[in-house]
Write a structure and sequence with these properties.
Layout (H helix, E strand, L loop, with lengths): L10 H24 L9 H22 L3 H28 L1 H14 L2 H25 L4 H37 L2
Length: about 180
């Protein structure tokens, strides 16, 4: 399997599309278990699209992307890592409920030293990116390990990006509450 386009509808396309659909479905399932109303969804676009339009968009993305094996493997890797992260905390989110979880987590982030939160966030991302980067660096000309490594690096970047969005929003809200009379 190389970086070339594969024909739409071919057996290889069917396999790649199927694998990508399963990975995206795991991301959706883990999100639904954690936040059925999408209140806790970190991606503002996904939250805005909602379930129906989000699923439709992802079906179109899967159908289009499955022609590129390396991109498909990158998307699959990232989606599965996101799903695993979602499942890690989904039980807590679901048991507390979306609103209670938001308040609980916001309180924890507001009370934690910003430097500690940021250090832990960047350390976690660096560890994932290190594993992915090592795969990319040492894979030679092997496209599958390269794509898995790149997908892992993309996951690390996404974790930092979406957590920083939430962090800044929570910190800004806490400052506004502290400044209010």
């Amino acid at each position: 399997m190389d970086a070339e386009l594969i024909p739409f509808g071919s057996p290889a396309y069917g396999i790649l599309c199927g694998v990508l659909v399963v990975a995206r479905a795991m991301d959706f399932l883990s999100t639904w278990v954690a936040t059925p109303n999408l209140r806790l969804e970190a991606n503002p676009l996904a939250r805005r699209l909602g379930w129906k339009w989000g699923i439709l968009l992802n079906v179109v993305i899967c159908a289009a992307v499955a022609r590129w094996p390396m991109v498909t493997i990158m998307f699959t890797t990232t989606s599965l890592l996101v799903a695993a992260r979602n499942f890690q905390s989904a039980w807590l989110m679901r048991s507390l409920g979306e609103e209670r979880y938001i308040h609980w987590m916001s309180d924890r982030i507001a009370e934690a030293p910003a430097g500690l939160f940021l250090f832990c966030l960047f350390a976690q991302a660096a560890l994932f990116a290190g594993v992915g980067g090592a795969l990319v660096w040492y894979c030679g000309n092997l496209p599958v390990p390269f794509a898995i490594g790149a997908g892992t690096v993309v996951y690390a970047v996404a974790v930092v990006f979406y957590n920083l969005l939430s962090f800044w929003k929570i910190r800004r809200h806490a400052r506004e509450l502290a400044a209010a009379p």
